[in-house]
């Protein structure tokens, strides 16, 4: 339960920081000045698509928090045999970081109207995301060749389940990234292109955060961190 609370607290912190920048507390009826200066205030500063994505990411965050809680509860039993963390996961993590950085650069380019740089950022993000997925499959193959099969131990099952679920979300994100990239090459309106790139960046940054939590969990760092927090609280 404490793991879920910690994870949800972090998610809530990010959500609160993001929402605080969306003019949700603005009161346009109290604004003073020419009406033309506030023509856009009757429309929400937060696009519906971003709200929908935020809700979806909250659900995904809860899903992974439940996986994390189940992981901690199951590892306390005597038959738990943690598998060694493949070194390739370090490289995969770096590749996913590059993918997220590329999308953030694409966002900056979209806000400046630099379509060529947007295309470059989208392609870089897509290629590195594919590289991450391929690296994950290679890591799986290495583990199975070393005898760490899915049904051999509960720790193995959790490893394949959690990393596989994260990989599926990356794969789903690539579909959205492909649609946004198609719009960048087909001359989509600047506002629509910018929104699409920002949505992809939101999704990618969130999945990067989730992966870093998963990586810490599989490496054993999360358990150490929870133990330290418990000792501080007691």
Report on the structure:
By secondary structure, this protein is mainly alpha-helical. The chain has one domain: Four Helix Bundle (Hemerythrin (Met), subunit A), CATH 1.20.120. It is built from 7 helices and no strands. α5 packs antiparallel against α6.
Number of domains: 1
Strand content: under 5%
Name of the CATH architecture: Up-down Bundle
Tell me the Rg in angstroms: 21 Å
Characterize the biggest β-sheet. none
Classify the fold: give the CATH topology: Four Helix Bundle (Hemerythrin (Met), subunit A)
Given the structure, what is the number of helices? 7
The structure class reads: mainly alpha
Question: How helical, in percent, are the residues?
Answer: over 70%
Q: For the record, what is the CATH homologous superfamily label?
A: Cytochrome c oxidase, subunit III, four-helix bundle
Question: Could you tell me how far the N terminus lies from the C terminus, measured between alpha carbons in angstroms?
Answer: 16 Å
| Broad shape | globular
Beta strand count: 0
Order of helices and strands: HHHHHHH
Would you identify the regions where 5 or more consecutive residues have pLDDT less than 50?
A: 35-44
